[in-house]
Amino acid sequence: MLNGTRRLGGLAIAATILAAACSSAGTSPAPTAATSATNCVTGSITAAGSTALQPLIDAAAKAYTKACAGATVTVNGGGSGTGLSQVVQGAVQIGNSDITAGSKLATPDANKLVDHIVAKQGWIVVTNKDVTGVTNLTTQQSIDIWTGKITNWKAVGGPDKAIVLILRPASSGTRSTYKKLVLSGANEATGGETLTEDSNGAITTAISKTPGSISVIGFAYYNDPANKSLLNGLQLNGADATIANMSTGTYKLAADGHMYTNGQPAGLTKAFLDYMMSADVQTNLIPSLSYAPAAK
Amino acid sequence: MSAGAPSIDRQAGPGRPSLHGKSSRGSMLADRVATAVLWGTGAFVLLLLGAIIVHFAMAAWGVVSPSFVLSDPSDSDLGGIFPLLWNSIYMLALTLMVSVPVGILGGIYMSEYAGDNAVTSAIRFAEEAISSVPSIVVGMFGLILFVDELHMGFTALGGALALTMFNLPLMTRLAEQALRAVPQDERSASLALGATKWQTIRHVVLPLAIPGLVTGVILTAGRVFGEAAVLLFTAGIGTPTHLNFGNLDITNPASPWSPFRPATTLSVYIYKLQSEGLGAYRNQIVDGSAALLIALVLIFNLGARFLGRVLTRRLTAA
Amino acid sequence: MVHLATPDRRASLRARPGFRERIDLPRRVVFVAAASMIGVVVLLLAFIAWQGLQLFLKDGIPITQIFSAEWQPDRMSGTVNFGLLPFIAGTIFVTVVALVISTPLSVGLALFLSEVAPQWAKAIVQPALEIFVGIPSVVWGWLGLTILVPFLSDTFQQGLVVSLPVLGEVFRAPGFRTGFSWLAGSLVLSIMILPTVTSVSYDAFRAVPQELRTGSLALGTTRWQAIRHILVPAALPGVLTAVVLGMTRAAGEALAVQMVIGSSPVFPRAITQPLSTLTSQITLEMGNTVFGEPWQDALWTMSLVLLVISITSVVLVRVINSRRIAL
């Protein structure tokens, strides 16, 4: 089951987290300035929301709390909607979201929140392995596939095989981002044949089992060697899904990852958000987990 | 009713050779076939359970080990599930701390005091109603009441209270049944000796009901242990870090003893891993955790039977 | 019943002088413990009903709209329409098929345990059923996802046809595109409700007086004839109760179903296609929506529908059981 690359991939991630933790503790000479991370504040906070951002914030929280005894940062998933609702309600200190508060919350609530953009996250269009000969989709081809105008892979240079669309639920941040950035707002074809799954895991399972299927998953999830081997990742308008291309904007299926606070942050919340913007996280941790640094 | 009554001329007792030809031979055959089918259902259930146990035993082979049970989750290798197992046990304890006493007291009322009146009927209705409410609805109720209205956030306490609501009717019902199983003579004898009703319950009925109560508590514990839908919205979904058991300050959310911290349990972790888990080992971890949960259910079951038997022997011998 | 109970109770009150004056503390404590369940139900009903009605009260959606078939909750995609019919139908369809699969099996098993099985067989099968009850729903979902879903899509790509020896082809459905489907959900549920339906039916069969069995056998019937013509009719209300309880459990199960059902928010058409239920839609969308937006209010309305279904089934069980007493 375990081949060399998977193990190496895992080790690389572990090494980076370790490096981040060590440098923040100030025990080893860090390549970049790590002074910001030594700003330790004691206390206990919870960040909840986006499952897409969870691996990153989780890893950052682990590194921070390792370096700062007396600080507890708990990271919960639950979805972007949960993150936004609960930070408005005051049940959590930080609400993590894939999408802007303004697009979800009522204006008075959205205005209470302060946005902290901590990373850029990408998505990638993936197909079943049997869709050979298709390595790229243009925006127009994507629109045609998602709106149901093209229903056979033949039309985009693939095998003579029906296209099975696997969608996210309409409330999904991934779906709305894809709709905005790639489909230019066109409505997806829904019908008895389309599958709806919310999680990257379920979509990966469904794609790998379903001939001719296509969907969109988080780039961080796709880049995990365990998943990559099951899927066919596609280019978008000829651009490869890479961290570099997301940073430059050449690959356009990428959006900001938000951490919202109710009012201006203070104490541990502020210290942790500062840490998220530190070189430890932005230059080391973020690329190792397949996110792109926050735009400056 | 008469439609169902067998007619005289179709007599064919099981051991008796048929005298009436075709129809009797037919009914004998039907009896044989039916018996075989009924045995088949029993065999099916056993085979299915056997297959599930073998499946998980095989899947867990090489995954579940003392270090898997006792170490922290890891990003790079198999790691362990200890903090999640701890949270499951902790939440169970927190839930039982409320539901056992309240359930037993409620059971006492239902078995010893409740008359045949509207209030009793309402309590019974409530008992049945809560038992039938879907767990996801209880979870949503917990979200709005504990997490939002009471501003608790995602906490072990909120999760445990939601679980308590879920568990209370079952506990009450079990306590009532255990108490009702105590022979009426024991009560009459105690009352005849001049004991008050409460003294009788406290010193005669309750001790005799203990084996039944213990078995009941352990069996319900198994169900609380595996519940996930109630906790999704109330106790949080995360990957807990290393637990520091030296921290005994229960008001500090960093302490594993604190009810005021988010607490992802093993069942919730399985749900999370299958939906968003990363890493080459995630399927092994889910298989290992599922095997562990099934093993715990088995242990709970056997333990309940064993303990029930031991207690009965002890108490009846004394 | 009522006529009998009232004078009875009055008599007992009169028999205890000073009843109202004496403060029986233990009695009060145990009463509060038992009555706390009424409090829980009232709270639950109040909160879920209040939240569930926001869609109509606050968002101004006409009640009739929830019975339409179009689920279009996203205001970014055009006019919103909160049709819950696909999910209500999904819940009913998945539950009904689960019952169709599970009931014969469970009732057969209950009959086996109560009428046929020797002591040693009972001593094995009954604990096995208790272990089934204890297996967590996420574990059932995981088994469904990793074993059942791939099995269905691999085996029935061309179509699902059920043929019986004499009747010929009785059922046909198009092949699975993916294994995530109505059938996968129903199969998982049928196993999950098996212990409930079995144990309640078993109690019903045990409650039939022994004289009816011996009487029937003495008339020379076979055991199967006794079961068919005497036992099953006598235990029918109990078996119906078992089925209703199984139905409630199936309709309310969330995670295991969500993991295998495919969650397509459309009206279910074929047993081999994905669909969505009330519970799976809540599981799927609760985390993506924000508190107070009509979209989430619609999810609360779904939970209110679930609550109404479960309370109705409790009432139904009561009605069935009161009939049994009348028999």
Written account of the structure:
The complex is a heterotrimer of chains A (296), B (318) and C (327). With 296 residues, chain A is α/β, with parallel strands linked by helices. Chain A has 2 domains: 5-119 and 257-293, D-Maltodextrin-Binding Protein, domain 2; 122-248, Periplasmic binding protein-like II (D-Maltodextrin-Binding Protein, domain 2, 3-Layer(aba) Sandwich), CATH 3.40.190.10. Chain A has 12 helices and 12 strands. In chain A, the strands form 2 sheets. In chain A, strands 1, 2, 3, 4, 6, 7, 8, 9, 11 and 12 form a 10-stranded mixed sheet that branches. In chain A, helix 1 crosses helix 2 and helix 1 packs antiparallel against helix 12 (279-288). Chain A is elongated. Chain A starts with a helix and ends with a strand. With 318 residues, chain B is mostly helical. Chain B is globular. Chain B starts with 21 loop residues before the first helix and ends with a helix. By secondary structure, chain C is mainly alpha-helical. Chain C has a single domain (84-326), classed as MetI-like fold. Chain C has 11 helices and 4 strands. The model of chain C is unreliable at 1-15 and 17-21 (pLDDT under 50). Chains in contact: A-B, A-C, B-C.
Largest sheet of chain B: none
Rg of chain A, Cα atoms, Å: 20 Å
Number of separate strands of chain A: 12
Ends of chain A: how far apart?
41 Å
Tell me which CATH architecture of the largest domain in chain A applies here: 3-Layer(aba) Sandwich
3D shape of chain A: elongated
Work out the largest interface and the residue count of each chain: B-C, 99 and 94 residues
Count every beta strand of chain B, where a strand is a DSSP E run of 2 or more residues.
Answer: 0
Number of helices of chain A: 12
**CATH top-level class of the largest domain in chain A:** Alpha Beta
CATH T-level fold name of the largest domain in chain B: MetI-like fold
What percent strand of chain A? 15-25%
Write the H/E string of chain A, N to C: HEHEHEHEEHEHEHEHHEEHEHHE
Secondary-structure element pattern of chain B, one letter each: HHHHHHHHHHH
